[in-house]
UniProtKB/TrEMBL annotation:
The family this protein is said to belong to: Belongs to the metallo-dependent hydrolases superfamily. Phosphotriesterase family.
N6-carboxylysine PTM sites in chain numbering: K126
The protein, known as: Phosphotriesterase
InterPro entries: Metal_Hydrolase, Phosphotriesterase
Entries under Gene3D superfamilies matching the protein: Metal-dependent hydrolases
Highest rank taxon of the organism: Bacteria
Keywords noted in UniProt: Hydrolase, Metal-binding
Keyword Hydrolase: yes
Transmembrane segments: none
Entries under Pfam families matching the protein: PTE
Metal-binding recorded as keyword: yes
Amino acid sequence: MLGDVAPESLGICDAHDHLFLTSPQLPGQEMDSVNAAGQELAAFGEAGGESLIQWTPYGMGRHAGKLPSLSRTTGVHVVAATGLHQAAHYTAELLDHLRAEGLADLFVRELTEGIADTGVRAGLTKVAGGFHGLDAHARWTMEAASEAHHATGAPIAVHLELGTGALDVLDLLCGKLDVPPGKVILGHLNRSPDLAIHHRAAEAGAYLAFDGPSRAHHATDWRMPEAVQTLTEAGFADQLLLGGDTTTSGARATNGGPGLPYLLRGVRPRLELAAGKDVVERMLTVNPGRAFAVEWA
């Protein structure tokens, strides 16, 4: 938000979270309060957090123009995203407009010139798959994201619906669209604790994000340590990331939920027992620095 930052300067990083997010899929749970976002980011900083990657994409209440002041006030680096989520989060009229305008052009513009009327340049493109597959909307957004990557060098972060479809995503992005696997970040793998799929995705060279501990997913907390330990033992510790993915106002720490600080106060010590402090430190510092690094094309 405050200019380019060297990868090694990110410090302890929440690799997938949201300060702002609104969607018709989450009625009454909008995260659109600047004051609440500031309190949450400050709480993360007090817990030791130094950077946060906001995956909120286009059209979902990013409030990109508010992020620089929040970053400056709290001392926490914030990275914004361009991109597009699943079709269910948007009106048909908006999607028709984006098809006419050119989705890849929008992504490239927000990555290079900045997000309209904010002065903020996005640092990644966020797209989404479907449940165990890719529909036409997902393919459209991923094709646009790949064009943006080839034009800018920016990484592509992917919401995997309930943690599924990782190999389909890699087949499309890396196989057909020639995106280097090291520029793809797969999110929510903990929601589908299939260790064989995790291994194949890591073997392909992608980054694997384990995120969402701030919400009650059926397999998130108690299976994640096993997954991290297994991947570490297989030699993939350098490809693992951690995030909180706070997406509702009720999940904020300021509203009585675990919120952003839980990643460091709850998840980190549990993972350290399984994989060791050195591995978890790498997941929170060195790995996100590499995963989100951009050599601007």
